[in-house]
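Example record

One chain of 202 residues, shown exactly as stored in the release files.
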Amino acid sequence: MRPQINTLTFDECDKLLRYLQQPRDDEINPRVYHRNYAMALIMLDTGIRVGELVQLRQSQLWFCEEPVQALNIEIIQAKNKHARTIPTTTRLREAIEQMHRQWWLSNWPEGTRYAFYQTRHTFPLTTRQIQRIIKSASAQSIGREVHPHLLRHTFASRLMRKTSMRVVQQLLGHSSISSTQIYTHPNGDDCRKAIDALNEKE
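Predicted structure tokens for this chain:
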């Protein structure tokens, strides 16, 4: 039997992102909130794993003085050593541009310039730190803690309703199509639409 995959609804995604965008503590620099928003948005709009996110360099998101049109995950970054290219959404490019203004312009040139860090660009955030950020934000915004991998599941499930399984496989970097088949399930949005359809006049 194919396992059920839990995902976020469209409304939950919206609540999570809006929560991350809006500073609530005057003692914390607003740019920290944008960094956290940008990280969540990348996972929601590209489906990359949190382990891939922490390895991203600034040059993979910002190139030739503008946000990239597509994100290239390199072989050494990918979990299964399969490189892939994922086009970026308009809202993600806007978030990248703001990351460049708020974080990357002030970087010193030496060392690896990681995209997401706490104080120094040569020391990226850890997967554990990002997990805590997403769990805390989701608990506050949608009333339950979610793991960053749920954002990848949500990306895949949304795509499955708009394109072929082979395309989804390519974008997720799955070695086997069987790994992608788990996303052919209905989610909460699908069930709600099915019930709402009962109210429509035939």
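Notes: The chain has a mean pLDDT of 84.
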